[in-house]
From TrEMBL:
Stored Pfam families: Oxidored_molyb
Gene3D superfamilies tied to this protein: Oxidoreductase, molybdopterin-binding domain
PANTHER family, per the entry: OXIDOREDUCTASE MOLYBDOPTERIN-BINDING DOMAIN-CONTAINING PROTEIN, PROTEIN-METHIONINE-SULFOXIDE REDUCTASE
Signal peptide: none
Protein name, per record: Molybdopterin-binding protein
Record domain Oxidoreductase molybdopterin-binding: where: 33-178
Length: 198
């Protein structure tokens, strides 16, 4: 299996691949449950909780400043893909369009299909994080989270929620789907934060 689908990193790549990971030759699709089929015309993105409630349409995101990103992608199931090329909107740019209470310390990512995952504000509001709507120059396929997913390169990919459609800002940490089912609360690849110690 290793030779057919995955390979060990070269010596030059070694400093970019976290412990216990292998490089994928493709771009695996791992999803719990059915892939949502989302009509762009009906798509909405909401913010609430410790934020002034606001609803965005697809056109709002398309009118936002777009940026190109090249980022490594690390899945908790032990594969990594280097130099993935995305197009999207920086989280830091998006944050300028909403009003968030200073008490907000955590975020719950909500998605079409009911998936949730939690992230701290410190991990969320970073210059390298973005909402992606294209990958390798093409519209983001549904199986990879299209039409829109969050990408958080410095954490395992389950924090890069597919089909994202909302952010709930919280004062205290709440756990998302995988976090309630045994996965680590943060998920930092270099520390191999795969599973909860609780």
């Amino acid at each position: 299996m290793l030779g057919k689908f995955f390979q060990k990193p070269t010596q030059q790549e070694g400093d970019r691949v976290p412990p216990g990971q292998h490089l994928t030759k493709g771009f695996p699709v791992l999803t719990y449950g059915a892939t949502p089929q989302i009509n762009i015309e009906e798509w909405e993105f909401k913010v609430w909780g410790l934020a002034t409630p606001k609803t965005f349409k697809w056109s709002d995101f398309m009118e936002s400043p777009h940026s190109e990103f090249t980022a490594d992608f690390h899945c908790v199931t032990r594969w990594s893909k280097l130099d993935v090329k995305w197009t999207g909107i920086k989280v830091t740019d998006f944050m300028k369009s909403i009003e968030v209470d200073s008490k907000a310390a955590h975020v719950m990512e909500h998605c079409y299909g009911g998936y949730t995952t939690n992230i701290s504000m410190e991990d969320f509001v970073r210059e390298e994080n973005f909402f992606a709507f294209q990958v390798f120059g093409e519209p983001l396929p549904a199986e990879h989270g299209g039409p829109l997913r969050l990408v958080v390169p410095h954490l395992y990919a389950w924090k890069s929620a597919k089909w994202i459609n909302g952010l709930e800002f919280l004062e205290k940490e709440d756990l998302g789907f995988w976090e309630r089912n045994g996965y680590h609360r943060r998920g930092e690849p270099w520390a191999e934060e795969r599973y909860s110690s609780l």
